[in-house]
Write a structure and sequence with these properties.
Blueprint: H1 2-36, H2 39-66, H3 76-89
Length: 108
């Protein structure tokens, strides 16, 4: 029993340490991009990817709920990606960016 608890504790420590390291890496990259003035360009590239992942996770959770394996309102990963997509949509002042439709010149 003690061996199992030790393995679980080690596993938790490795996962928590990995998440902290990943968070620090993302923060460092964002800081470097901000200092070089390229954060806006990185946001424009990351926004479509975040939206695509968010849609994928939404579709996956909807398929699970139809299949009888409902886990509530979705996963933590889906909530994090949706929050990131909302954050990437903001222009920094809390306003949503307006996107131009390149074919018609319309604003949506």
């Amino acid at each position: 029993m003690e061996r199992v608890l030790n393995l679980l504790l080690i596993r938790f420590g490795l996962i928590a340490g990995g998440l902290v390291a990943l968070g620090l890496l993302v923060f460092a990259v964002a800081l470097v991009l901000r200092r070089r003035g390229k954060l806006g360009a990185a946001r424009r590239y990351a926004a479509p990817a975040a939206h695509a992942v968010s849609r994928y996770l939404d579709d996956r959770s909807a398929a699970r709920s139809r299949g009888g394996m409902s886990r509530g309102s979705g996963s933590v990963a889906g909530a994090v990606v949706r929050a990131a997509a909302r954050r990437l949509d903001d222009d920094g002042s809390g306003q949503r960016q307006r996107e131009r439709n390149p074919g018609r010149g319309e604003v949506r």
